[in-house]
Known about the structure:
30% of the residues lie in helices and 25% in strands. It is of the alpha+beta class. Strands 1-2-5-4-11 form a five-stranded antiparallel beta sheet. The longest helix is centred in the C-terminal third of the chain and has 17 residues, at 341-357. The structure holds iron/sulfur cluster. Iron/sulfur cluster is lined by residues 328-330, 334, 336-337, 364-366, 368-370.
Amino acid sequence: MSLDEQQLRIEGIYLQNDRGEYMQRVKLAGGVLSLAQARVLAELSGRFGSGTLHLSTRGSVEFHNLPAADLPEVFNGLAAVGLFSRGACGGAVRGIYCSSSFGPGFSRTQVMLRHFLHHFSGNPHFEGLPKKFKIAFEAGYERSRHLIQDLALVLVEEDGENSRYDVWTAGGLGREPQAGFLYASRVPEADLLPLAESIVDVYRAWGEKGRRLKHLLNAVGEDELRSRIEERRKNKQPVRFSDAFSKALLPDGRHQRLRVNIFAGELPTQKLGELVELGSQHGCHWLLVTPDQNIELLVAGLGDVLEQALSCAGFDVEGSENGALRVCPGRSECRMGLCATRDLGQRIINEFGQQAAVRSLAISGCRNSCAQPQLAEFGILASKLKRDDNRRFPLFDLYRREGDGLGQRFATELTEDELFEKLGAFLQE
Ligand code: SF4
């Protein structure tokens, strides 16, 4: 089958390895899946690909190792339950996510997020961008993920359609991490879409091919960027999303959240199938892929019973509540990867046990920073391959985050043993 790689990218699909296998990324609205959608994901994953779904740090789901011949069937299977991947890769508005999980404020941000996702996805006005454009709605500042978006909308006052948001822009990680800046405070909800469109318009008009919005900011300066955005914005009218009834996923607050820890975001098909079956037996209607690559279940009523059933089935339920280990696919599934990230994560857990499990750690297999190491307490990034006589091995940069901004590079080009020595010293502090 002859496939156009650029066209596939905009459909959320890219070539994964030299064997001609593909990755397909599925956009989820803020990481949320209905139980029916999760069931279909499990069925498709059982028939196609590696038999494991990867949970991304942006609340998306990825199929790996798909032969070209299987792509249409996976695509159609997803569409049958309203799942899509248009714009999940390439120069487009990517999946819109929310790191606030099923917590306070999440319902309002979810409603807005779904409106935005439908507006920007598959819309030719917002495709063909110089590079990816990442949007996030956040229910607060707790996780600091507003810093790493092209556009972040942070709920600061919740009052239905009259809610207000702080708007941040021009942040991003990748090879040149840069925190976004506060563009405007307490923006009324009706002004969000015109402002978002204006920022995307400016990026499309003046962004350099292959470079994120932050590079345009660096090239023209904040004043000029603002002036171009406001020029576009002045002709746009406010947009109110008037809904006939509440579309919030948490309408009455009587739901319980259960977090199931998934090591490195690698969810075997069989385990997803078990999660779906147990959830359906115990009043769970929604699942959520968290930005820490775990699964949360939203349960009406029988949460304690479900928690027990999940534990009996071998799931790690709320096992390390305060910690998080984010791991990108790394060398085993990404052509850019310089190290086996999951093996490294497993070695950290094996060597440091609970000391590591309660901390926030992130491991990226290359400088692209997909695991967001600059937002973890300790971030590890494979920065280069070193050769000696007989072998090649990765060297690592170590980041440490102590304040409100991005983590800073603390040590560079460490061998794996040097990395463990430094990490061990930090974890004992
Ligand atoms: S950080 Fe690098 S190795 Fe990891 S998924 Fe991203 S591009 Fe691949």
